[in-house]
Amino acid sequence: MSSTGGPLNAGVLGATGTVGQRFIVLLSQNPMFRIHSLGASERSAGKAYRLAAKWKLSDPMPDEAREALVKPCDPAQFAGCDVVFSGLDASVAGDIEGAFLAADFAVFSNAKNYRMVPSVPLCVPVVNTDHYALVAGQRAASGRKKGFIVTNSNCSTSGLVVPLKALQDRFGPLRRVVVTTLQAISGAGYPGVASLDILDNIVPLIEGEESKMEAEVLKILGGVSADASACAPLTDLRVSATCNRVPVIDGHTECVSVEFAAATPPSIDEIKQCLREYTCEAQRLGCYSAPAQVMQVTEEEDRPQPRLDRNAGGGMSVTVGRIRECPVFHVKFTLLVHNTVLGAAGASILNAEYAAKKGYL
Ligand SMILES: NC(=O)C1=CN([C@@H]2O[C@H](COP(=O)(O)OP(=O)(O)OC[C@H]3O[C@@H](n4cnc5c(N)ncnc54)[C@H](OP(=O)(O)O)[C@@H]3O)[C@@H](O)[C@H]2O)C=CC1
Ligand SMILES: N[C@@H](CC(=O)OP(=O)(O)O)C(=O)O
Predict the structure, then answer these.
(1) 130 and 17 in one domain?
(2) What CATH number is attached to the domain comprising 194?
(3) CA 339 to centroid of ligand 2, rounded, Å
(4) Which of 4, 183, 290, 317 has its CA 20 to 30 A from that of 199?
(5) 24 CB under 6 A from ligand 1?
(6) ipTM of the complex
(7) Residue at 186 is within a domain
(8) C-alpha of residue 20 to centroid of ligand 1, in Å
(9) Does 22 contact ligand 2 (Cβ within 6 A)?
(10) Are 135 and 164 members of one domain?
(11) 204 is in which domain, residue-wise?
């Protein structure tokens, strides 16, 4: 809640895009926030939102957005916002988010630009909210009173780190992880991948995705330095990612093999129990968007499937299935994450809810 006790005023940068539209639906349903300002490019600025956005979600466009005038992404136009969410294209996110930060806004970003900056929490809110310890250092180093930036991860990373975190916490360090993704087309934004490329097809390349996943996992599963000035990524875990685009609208599927560092790995039953029992700080604090069950472990042999499982927990739960022994590593499984909910807008919103509960906003 804001200092006046009402909902927090939320601005959305990149409000017309794929992630921006998801922000608008989720914020309109969330009692902690009120949609205050919507921003996009000069192509959209000055238009009513309903005319600027090519609406792609099956949820109707919320009334509070329809007639709102889209603004340019200029901090002066967002005065009165308690929090700013960004779904900006990465080609412009660095400069625009930097300008909002300099103007002392709390920025929650989906873009890749600031993710690997050591003083910036790269936070999947069901995994590593302990990285908020970096916020005080960010403010001290910059002299800002209120402003800080928290990013969420790449959408495939956000699904992968959830079971990995549970396994690491319960059974000790992981040694090697191999992951192959089957990523939905909404991950490429709009208009994204040409229909002639993706219909009746699979594209075995998503530029830059594999190296992002491999690096982000280490930062998220790592800690922060003793003086909380920088992140401390894991150094002993090796991650290999292979990323593919598949003709699914929403929901990234990932086939994962994991090797534990311990000589004696846990049994498959112990692993299932660990994933089912995993809880996070955002749940314990009663954050509105925290899923009741962080992971839904399915025993059905042919699940998870994107059409059937992507909305688990309102898109905030990760579904994990086909958990079985791996003849090369120790265990393998298939997971599904909703790429624009836990993988993007939903994670940013839960990050902000957590920040509010902890007094950062
Ligand atoms: N889609 C996904 O599943 C995920 C996306 N992300 C990241 O989130 C961000 C948004 O992705 P997505 O929604 O898919 O992308 P889209 O291409 O669908 O949307 C991009 C948004 O950025 C705005 N924009 C583009 N250029 C400018 C500019 N010069 N000034 C101001 N605004 C501008 C667009 O406005 P306009 O309509 O006016 O052009 C639009 O609102 C990206 O950084 C992406 O990498 C992260 C995780 C998952
Ligand atoms: N590249 C992801 C989505 C995305 O935009 O990720 P990032 O923010 O890490 O570039 C996908 O194609 O599904």
Answers:
(1) yes
(2) 3.30.360.10
(3) 9
(4) 317
(5) no
(6) 0.98
(7) yes
(8) 7
(9) no
(10) no
(11) 156-338
Provide the β-strand partners of residue 147: none
Give me the torsion for CA of 214, 156, 317, 276, rounded to 10°: -40
Same domain? 131 vs 236 = no
Report the distance separating Cα 278 and Cα 293, nearest Å: 8
Residues with a catalytic annotation lie at: 155, 252
How many independent structural domains does the chain possess?
A: 2
- Please report whether residue 134 resides in a domain: yes
Asked if residue 253 has its Cβ within 6 Å of ligand 2, the reply is no
Q: For residues 256 and 321, state if they share a domain.
A: yes
What are the CA-CA distances from residue 190 to residues 186, 193, 360 (Å)?
A: 7, 8, 33
180 and 206 in contact (C-beta within 8 Å)?
no
In a domain, 1, yes or no: no
Alpha-carbon distance values, 176 to 242, 299, 360 (Å): 14, 25, 35
CATH of the domain at 32: 3.40.50.720
Residue 109 and residue 86 in contact, taking contact as beta carbons nearer than 8 Å: yes
In degrees and rounded to multiples of 5, residue 199 shows phi and psi of -70, 135
Answer whether residue 330 is part of any domain.
yes
Candidate of 89, 96, 245 to mutate for ligand 1, largest count of ligand atoms within 8 Å of Cβ: 89
Q: What residue's CA is closest to ligand 1, atom 42?
A: 89
Q: How far is the CA of 16 from the centre of ligand 1 (A)?
A: 8
State if residue 250 touches ligand 2 by the CB under 6 angstroms criterion: no
* Residues 104/147, Cβ–Cβ less than 8 Å: yes
* Alpha carbon distance 264, 241 (integer Å): 25
Verify that 311 and 210 share a domain, yes or no. yes
Global pTM exceeds 0.95: yes
Shared-domain flag, residues 150 and 160? no
- Domain check: are 213 and 306 in the same one? yes
Instruction: Give the residue from 228, 358, 222 showing the smallest Cα distance to 284.
Output: 358
Same structural domain, 146 and 199: no
In three-state secondary structure terms, 38 is strand
Tokens encoding 352: 């902000």
* pLDDT mean values, one per 10 residues, the chain (361 residues): 80 98 98 98 98 98 98 98 98 98 97 98 98 95 94 98 98 98 98 98 98 98 96 98 98 98 96 98 98 98 98 98 98 98 98 97 95
